[in-house]
Amino acid sequence: MLLRRVFSAATACAILCAGFTACSSQKYPEGSVEYAYDPEAPSLYEEFADYFDVGSAINPWDLTEGTNEYEIITNQFNIYTYENDSKPDHMHPSEDVYNFENTDKLVEFAEQNGKKVRGHTLIWHSQCPDWFFYDENGNDASADLLVERIKEHVTTIVSHYKGKIDTWDVVNEVLDDGYGLRFSDWLRLVGDYDGDGDDYDFIEIAFRAAREADPDARLIINDYSLESNTNKAITMYNMVKAMLEEGVPVDGIGLQMHVGYDTDVQLVRDNMEILAGLKEINPDFVLEVTELDMNCYTWGNEDIEVDLTDEFVEQFDNTYKELFNIFLDYAEEGILKTVVFWGYNDGASWLNGSPAGRVNHPLLIDRDLKFKSAYWAVINTPSEREAQ
Ligand code: G3I
């Protein structure tokens, strides 16, 4: 079994030529970063099946049958998030217009192939059309009007996909990076709607409407930097704890996990531990990794081209591997259910091009659709663990 994982058709020759033994299965030839695309390569989601679902953000054009892209996403993943097409600006561009067409196609693809879908996202401050926040006279919407719109928006979309979309990011990025809630238009206009002293009523209203529209969908509060910003993780813990105690139907927290190749993995573990504490309030509470990728640049390093030295690649691969070992630990504790990459090949990642000209390599498959050594480092983690 261990051998099958490593010695896929394209890699066996290279590894044998380099004189490796089966025991050093996760090592690769000196200076080699990547391996040719291999349709016989093992499947990420199958290798992790005993632990969690493995998914990817994709776009509508990835669903073209007969392409390598289609083959990769079908073989490698069992859960999908649209990178952009299920966001408010796509799904509900004006008050009377809903666009279900693209997300319907993803749902249909998932149904035909026995896969799952994450809906991203219902309420967000970004990629959200302005009409939500104004009344017919162009003034700020009243709290009553915005609350009605939230209910209508959430109910219409979640009902449309009742029984078809497994998980919803009901709200996205509602926390501030410093302290407390992000000062979005949702917060500014709805505020403490029920007068009970807390300000997260727009969140509460969205979750309650989503639960009513599809009682079986998993409802997630999704945010970034939860794995690295401990203040933010604690703020999230406290807010969700209060909501759970009030009966707000939050089923789990999504950690986006846009990390760097040099991320502090112990901090990732520690912050996940904080959030995992919510299981004490609700034994069925889950954590999901919703947008995993690994930036090859660090903040403040504006080099246009990262140097993929052996040393760099080794660090990159090891960080991925250590993260997946953390994920496996939390899966074994019964709290981590899903790991989704934010894209599946380097060329299509949002991390390219900002600043202009930047080429990034944040995923497990390169821009020529070759499986990188990081892919093998990740896919071997369950078997290495089981062999110990
Ligand atoms: O579709 C238009 C196109 O018509 C236009 O010509 C072009 C000009 O710039 O823009 C295109 O839209 C872009 C869209 O991606 C589709 O490519 C937007 O400008 C661009 O802002 C948008 O970026 C997306 C970003 O969210 C928006 O905030 C990224 O693709 C997407 O990966 C990113 O995803 C977010 C998650 O939703 C939430 N967490 C963070 C994550 C990364 O930023």
Describe the structure.
With 388 residues, the protein is an alpha/beta fold. Helix content is 38%, strand content 15%. It contains 14 helices and 11 strands. It has an 8-stranded parallel beta barrel, surrounded by 5 helices. A two-stranded antiparallel sheet has the order 1-11. Strand 2, helix 4 and strand 3 (79-82) form a beta-alpha-beta unit. Helix 12 packs parallel to helix 13 (373-379). The protein is globular, with a radius of gyration of 21 Å. The relative contact order is 0.13. Bound molecules: ligand G3I. Ligand G3I is lined by residues 83-84, 126-127, 172, 224, 256, 291, 350. InterPro entries: GH (IPR017853), GH10 (IPR044846), GH10_dom (IPR001000).
In short:
Residues 38-381 form the GH10 domain. The protein has 388 residues and is of the alpha/beta class.
Strand content: 5-15%
Radius of gyration: 21 Å
| Model regions low in confidence, pLDDT < 50 over at least 5 residues | 1-35
Which descriptor suits the 3D outline? globular
Order of helices and strands: HHEHEHEHHEHEHHEHEEHEHEEHH
Strand order of the largest sheet: 2-3-4-5-6-7-9-10
Describe the sheet with the most strands.
8 strands, parallel, barrel
As a percent range, the share of helical residues equals 25-40%
Q: Given the structure, what is the number of helices? A: 14
